[in-house]
């Protein structure tokens, strides 16, 4: 668990990169919408609005196609960017409720069926 004094009592943030993920999950809008809601509920946050999720397409480089989304909760934010062509997902999570970074990593690894995840920054 992080301690509140690490962020001057405001909140906690992490960035997570997941590699060799399930292609089908990375490109599925319904899966990602459910993932946003279920993940937030599992952390004890309360939903404010539905997730905002959209496909991004790059006609010159299909490996850059994917889905991006965000969801705001009471004092918290989750962003996910997927790149099915590269089998990668990037996740950013901020919460005013303390959380265990290993929990977030494990949850997302299982959700995306990733072979490897890496915490990039945490503060």
From TrEMBL:
Signal peptide (UniProt feature, chain positions): none
Essential cofactor(s): pyruvate
Family matches, as SUPFAM superfamilies: S-adenosylmethionine decarboxylase
Keyword list, A-Z: Autocatalytic cleavage, Decarboxylase, Lyase, Polyamine biosynthesis, Pyruvate, S-adenosyl-L-methionine, Schiff base, Spermidine biosynthesis, Zymogen
Biological processes per GO annotation: spermidine biosynthetic process
GO molecular function annotation: adenosylmethionine decarboxylase activity
Entry superkingdom: Bacteria
One Pfam family in the UniProt entry: AdoMet_dc
One Gene Ontology cellular component: cytosol
Protein name (Swiss-Prot/TrEMBL): S-adenosylmethionine decarboxylase proenzyme
Species whose genome carries this gene: candidate division WOR-1 bacterium RIFOXYB2_FULL_36_35
């Amino acid at each position: 668990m992080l301690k509140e004094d690490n962020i001057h009592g405001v909140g906690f943030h992490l960035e997570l990169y997941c590699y060799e993920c399930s292609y089908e999950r990375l490109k599925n809008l319904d899966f990602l919408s459910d993932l946003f809601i279920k993940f937030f509920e599992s952390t004890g946050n309360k939903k404010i609005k539905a997730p905002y999720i959209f496909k991004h397409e790059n006609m010159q480089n299909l490996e850059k196609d994917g889905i991006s989304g965000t969801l705001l909760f009471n004092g918290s934010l989750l962003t996910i960017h997927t790149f099915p062509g590269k089998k990668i997902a990037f996740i950013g999570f901020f919460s005013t409720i303390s959380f265990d970074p290993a929990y977030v990593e494990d949850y997302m690894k299982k959700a995306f069926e990733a072979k490897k995840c890496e915490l990039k920054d945490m503060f």
